[in-house]
Amino acid sequence: MASRDGVLATLDSSKMQWYHYKAVIISGMGFFTDAYDLFCVLPPATAAAINGVALCGTLLGQLFFGLLGDRMGRKKVYGITLFLMALSFFHRIRPILRQLPQIWFRIGGDYPLSATIMAEYANKKTRGSFIAAVFAMQGYGILGGGLVGMAVSAVFRSLHHAPPYSVNPVGSTPPEADYVWRIILMLGALLVVLSYYWRTKLPETASKSKFVLFLKEFLRRHGLHLIGTASTWFFVDVAYYSQNLFQKEIFSAVGWLPPAETMSALDELFKISFAQFLMALCGTVPGYWATVLVIDRIGRFTIQIMAFFFITVFMLALAIPYHHWTLNKTEFLIMYGLTFFFANFGPNSTTFIVPAEIFPARLRSTCHGISAAAGKAGETVGALGFLYAAQNQDKSKTDAGYPAGIGIKNSLFILSGINVLGLWCTFFVPEAKGRSLEEMSRDDEEEEQDHQSPSGVESV
């Protein structure tokens, strides 16, 4: 016990060193490729299949590997997830089936394990920034998906001797288009394979090896905390991923993108990739790194409350005068980009960070997995709900000739209410700024009780 306490005290008092940055890069590599896979531009049928598998498979993976991370140790399970994912690339089976183990094992395992490992490596003064930096790699994955989409489509466009911005009124789809999305998806796998070796070199964290299922004492101390982390993650993902996965419909509804039938498949790929890249560059990535810079100064609770409030304000500002934005597309994109900025400088980041800090060591990975799975359920609700609303928008036209988009307008009102619920549930979550993991989880109190009682505490 003294040895473990000494290790934890050393970690809490240590200054930033190279191994901290190395852990951020290695852990963040998975989130880079996760975002790249989920947000790169693919044909509608392929995108729907991959997103469906991702949402269902990841939820199960978060629960399973979160539990396993507490039972077997973080490092061992971290390596298992990546090894099993790598095997999926060598099976000669249908592409959509090959995506199931890839997304389940990699994304599902990455969430609880990456957050827990980074939390247990870092000291209490910079812990939030380092966990946020791991998660911020998602922003670069979105940027990477947009860049690769633009580059590959431009190359294939040049083969047809057509300028990259040309409009094809016939809406043709060249035979090479099928290769384009496969190349885009395949490139995302390369970094995953390279990161396997690096992950196997990470040392095991100084966690307790004893595994105990939920106790009455745990529920008394942390029951509301778990409800808070799970519910806030659920609500933010309903709003965030419904926006992110279906940016194309929103851009088209306000007339920033021309109708799909007026473009060839390669034209459409280039323009959608550019729109997503621009939104990530101006809104998503700055929001992630604003969290990294200030989270250990102003705290998790303050950032989350502030961001939920501003997201609600900006969504209402988009929804109430909705038809105004169809005539002012640049202003719309600025307002829309601000919702992404505050989602990432706020609950999309903090909901990932906090569950790795406030729960006991022997249940830390499990509780993070439960919270993340609740978020994945929110993604499913948001994606399906927003897709339904976007497909059922009013077909009438505005004065500018663009779709009125009644479905999207109502969606913005609904998402505003969802953000209010997320703000309210934030009050169930304690602040972890500047506090050690043992202080937040109250592990020290539990150890004292174990020493005072010869029989210890019986698990439920």
From TrEMBL:
Residues 1-434 form the Major facilitator superfamily (MFS) profile domain. Gene3D superfamilies: MFS general substrate transporter like domains. It is a multi-pass membrane protein. The keyword Transcription regulation does not apply. GO terms for cellular component: membrane. The chain crosses the membrane at residues 45-65, 130-159, 179-198, 218-236, 272-294, 301-320, 332-354, 412-430. SUPFAM superfamilies: MFS general substrate transporter. The keyword NAD does not apply. Residues 436-460 are annotated as: Disordered. Keywords: Membrane, Transmembrane, Transmembrane helix. It is found in: Membrane. InterPro entries: MFS (IPR011701), MFS_dom (IPR020846), MFS_trans_sf (IPR036259). GO terms for molecular function: transmembrane transporter activity. Pfam families: MFS_1 (PF07690). It catalyses: phosphate(in) + H(+)(in) = phosphate(out) + H(+)(out). It comes from the Eukaryota. Its main location: membrane. Belongs to the major facilitator superfamily. Phosphate:H(+) symporter (TC 2.A.1.9) family. This is Major facilitator superfamily (MFS) profile domain-containing protein. It comes from Erythranthe guttata (Yellow monkey flower).
